[in-house]
Amino acid sequence: MNEIRPDSSGEGGKGPVANPHIYSREPFDPRAIEEMTPEQEKVFLASQRKLMWWKFKRHKIAVVCGLFLLFIYISIAIAEFLAPYSLETRNTRFIYAPPQSVHLFHEGQFIGPFVYGYKSKLDLETLKRNYTEDTSKPQPIRFFCRGDSYMFWGLFESDFHLFCPPERSELFLLGTDRLGRDVFSRMIYGARISMTIGLIGIFISFVLGITIGGLAGYYGGWVDLVVQRIIEVMQSLPTIPLWLALAAIMPVTWSPILVYFGITVILGLLEWTSLARAVRSKLLSLREEDYVLAARLMGAKPSRIIGLHLIPGFMSHLIASATITIPTMILGETALSFLGLGLRSPVVSWGVLLNEAQNINVVALYPWLMWPVVPVILVILAFNFFGDGLRDAADPYA
Question: pTM for this structure?
């Protein structure tokens, strides 16, 4: 270690020696600058992934929404187990039956979760079925029981359910429709289509948006000019009529599976423009950075520069775009199916279920048919709050 001791008098080295300056050739240790608390040292030594996770946990609403979405996606994997009825089960004696209330106590005695059975009577003047509860005898709900048979993911047959209707009775938590089908069970099955259509659509949208927007931003010039004109033309078209026109050209002879993938491709092809424009603007500003020039001089291909050096620089914006685009696609499928131009029976989605409630008279008489709109609203709100938390966590140093 060498010492340099300049004098403080400024008179050619005469006078008292003060303010010694010491330098060392040892590796720099930032912790030696000052004593850090254990909490400060933990943050200082944490990886970026840990910092992102800690910042995301502080966003309480985003955590709750993330758990809610995780629960929804887990439930669609085991929809047959969760639903008390199979998709094709009809209860012809209980057409347009109202929702049943779940009770715990009967005449002051705790019994556990149970429902009261229905007595129906046909009104000969209005031809409407009137239902009244038979409160004389409680009907306990069965759990982890045998019920309607189903093919689990088309692999094997089973009849095991989380909960089932009482013995020799019925269970309609959210009522039934015009064919006597349980609305609650059909909502669980409908989540499988409505939630996955957004994931497949966002994959198509991201591939197109990042590829086309990345090329426009990286190369510029006539490539950027052509891409911008295409985006402007597509964004000038009204969304709903464009959806209707593209959905109407699908042949009526297509199977429900082909219609499902057709709707998914349509939604993916229409939602890439805003993402492409955002990617293009970011790449225009980042392509002049020194590290991009260094990668170019080292012989890196444009695809490698865009994918490994430029795209990660604004990952927070991509995450926010994804969480906004997914609910937009869910809404698009719901709107098309509600108008009768999207998915059709026997495919079940939330939009197909809402198609039953097009008639205002039906809504006035049987309001429980509007229940499928509740998960649509909750999922859209959850995606937006979850996206806010992810966007903030993706930039932990902000």
Answer: 0.77
